[in-house]
Amino acid sequence: MNTNNVNKSEEKKATIQEIEFIREVMIYTAFKEGIKSNNTLKISIMLDQLLNKIQKN
Known about the structure:
This protein has 2 helices and no strands. Helices cover 88% and strands 0% of the residues. The model has no long low-confidence stretch (mean pLDDT 92). The chain has one domain. The chain is mainly alpha-helical. The protein is elongated, with a radius of gyration of 14 Å. The chain has helices spanning 3-33, 38-56.
């Protein structure tokens, strides 16, 4: 495995961890503030962007 593949693999792992964390934050925020709150929607958008990023790789 070359260095480029290792870096992509590590980047993917880090992105997955970030997705899991943001997902938990979004769920907490939705319970606390409601599904349609501005904060929940902003977090949802961030989560969508990360999911799109990981799909492209």
